[in-house]
Amino acid sequence: MNSVELRGLTKAQGAFVLGEMSFAVPEGYITGFIGPNGAGKTSTIKAILGLSRPDGGEILLFGEPLAAGRRNLAGEIGVVMDEPFFVEEWTAAQMEGLLAPFYPAWDGARYAGLLARFGLDGRKKVRELSRGMKVKLMLAAALSHGARLLLLDEPTSGLDPVARDELGEILREFMREEGRSVLFSTHIGADLERVADHIVFLMEGRVLFAGPKEELLEGYLRVAGGAESLSPALRAQIAGLREHGAGFEGLLPADAAQGLGSDVLIERASLEEIFIFLGRGRQSHAE
């Protein structure tokens, strides 16, 4: 079963267009939603949450079409956005009183435990918290009402490596229960390499890849070599080709690497490198 499924989603916002987007967030897995800033990740998440109306296509949540009049799923979806959506003058303690009535499965003990675990003082106002603490506060709320699906929009942006690693551990803990799933939007590939099972790669409002993480990792190789090794045939196959004084580097489809000479260095590419080189290749092609 898919927790989220997009079928041909389109949405125009001025000059920017989400075009014919189709992908799924399978139940039981963490799906990484990656792409550069401005690729359309936040616009897509807002459409999934019903905060904006698509121009075309269909969105399904837990197998049901997202449409007016359907059963209320607010309690089954936990949300952490890139910017805190709580009133700056609220305290963490006040937030519970305001949020709990909206969630039938609100767990006060769970919320208190998460505040303690995250080192959050319930008496502090939101405006007094650091960015990392605000993210943890949103997480505490999202994890305290029995959500089956977590939607995270750039939660690690601006966080230090320790805080980012801690978030990964929290997501792994969340996934230990059956029937749960995560859509984790970010532009930091290293975060997804650690925790994601599936990847949706977005560029300029289009899906470039959607599938298992290992399929993407096994599909490309990083290649590098001296200028004399860059034949016209090899040049035509490399994505995101970068030439410099010492030679070249770029990304090559794995099935195109056979037969390359020993003068070309071939390495496994990281997710970060795949995103960078494919993104460069897309921009170069557009130019």
Attribute tags:
single chain; about 290 residues; alpha/beta; Rossmann fold; 2 domains; 6-stranded mixed β-sheet; 4-stranded antiparallel β-sheet; about 30% strand; elongated
Main beta sheet strand tally, sense and closure: 6 strands, mixed
Poorly predicted spans: none
CATH-level-2 architecture of the largest domain: 3-Layer(aba) Sandwich
Instruction: Count structural domains.
Output: 2
Strand segment tally: 14
Tell me the span between the first and last alpha carbons. 40 Å
Biggest sheet strand order reads: 6-7-8-3-9-10
Shape: elongated
Radius of gyration: 21 Å
- Helix fraction, binned, reads 25-40%
Please count the helical segments.
9
Give the H and E element order: EEEHEEEHHHEHEHEEHEHEEEH
Task: Give the percentage of residues in beta strands.
Answer: 25-35%
Mean pLDDT: 88
CATH fold-type name of the largest domain:
Rossmann fold
The CATH homologous superfamily of the largest domain is called P-loop containing nucleotide triphosphate hydrolases
Classified by CATH, the class of the largest domain is: Alpha Beta
